[in-house]
Amino acid sequence: MDIAVAVSGGIDSLCALLLLRQQGYTPLAIYGRFLPSDTLPDAYQDYLATLRIPLTILDLTIPFAQTVLAQTQASLNAGKTPNPCALCNKSIKFGLLANEALALHTPFATGHYVQTSLYQDVLLLTKAKDTKKDQSYFLSLIPKALLPHLRFPLAQMTKEECRALLSHRGLPQPKESQDVCFRLAPPFNPGRCLLIERDGSCKEVAPHNGLANYTLGQRRGLGISYREGLYVVKKDYATNTLYVGPLPLLGMRGCTASSINYFLAPASWPKDLFAKVRYRQKAVPMTLVHADANTITIAFDQPQFPSDLDQILSVSDRDGRILAGGVVDGMELVVDSLLR
Length: 340
Hints:
The chain is α/β, with parallel strands linked by helices. It folds into three domains: 2-168, HUPs (Rossmann fold, 3-Layer(aba) Sandwich); 191-249, Roll (SH3 type barrels); 252-334, Elongation Factor Tu (Ef-tu), domain 3 (Beta Barrel), CATH 2.40.30.10. The chain is 21% helix and 32% strand. Strand 13 and strand 14 (284-291) form a beta hairpin. The longest helix is centred in the first third of the chain and has 20 residues, at 84-103. The radius of gyration is 22 Å and the shape is globular.
C-alpha cells in the first residue's frame, strides 16, 4: 500500500521511511519548501534514490509567508510570544502537505514523536513513548478529522533507537532538521518598565525596548540593579508596560484560550485533567472553569511558571491523550492581585 511521508532532511523522517517500508508500505516522499532558501540536502536525496523512494517537492513559500510568517510577525508586533511551529503544523504540514497526500488517496505519515489512541471510541492524539521528544503539544491544533488518515511510525521509538536503525541499515546519520526554520525580528517599541515590590508598590526604572523582546519569567538581560533577583512578571500590552519583580511575584494561576480545537467534547472529558502552556513544561493538574465552542478557561491547581499570549494551551487526560488545544489569549498572573 502506498503512503505519503513528509520528509525534512533529518534523522526522524528517514527513520520513518525505513519503518514504514518494514511494515509493508510503499513510501512516497513529500518535501515542502517553506522559505525561498529551503532545499532538501543532496545527501538526503541520495538516500531516497538508494532506497528507490520517489520524491515530490512542493513550493509552499507563498502560503507559508501569508499564514505562518504573517501571523508570527503580527503577534511579535503586538509584543506577544507566538508559537510558529504550532501554526505551521496546523496550516502547512498537516494542512497543505497532508492535503497532497489525501489527494493521492494515501495515508499521510510524518517523523513526529507522537501517537494516536482510542478513548471512548474516539481517536485522540497521545504522547509518544519517548517523552523527552514527545511533540503532541505542538500538534494540538491540527484538525481532528485528519487523525484517521495519519500514521506516526516513531510513536514507540526513541531517538537513540532511530539512530541505531540507520546505523544497522548502513545509512549515514543526516544532520538534524531545524525546529526553528526562520527568525523574525521583534519591533523596537520602547515603553515604561515598572519594578513592583512584594507589597505592591511600584517604581519606574529604565525603559524597556519592546515587549516582544522579553519573556515572562526572564531574569537575565534586564540590566536593573536590585537587592534580590528580578524577573519579568507581567507584560501589559494595552499600555506597553513591562513589570519586573522578585521571584515570589512570578507565576500563572490560570489562562483563557481561544480558537479551540476539540478532539473530544468537554462533556466527555474525564475528571482528572492536565494542561501544558509551554513545550518544556510537564503537564500539570488543572480545573476546567469554562468551555464553549470558541474558548476555554482553566485554573491550575498550583501556580505555574508563566507562558505568554499567543502560546499554546493543550488539555490532556492522565494518560497523555490530547483532548483540546487552543491559543492563549488571557492569563491570570500571581502579580495581578497586587495591581488591582
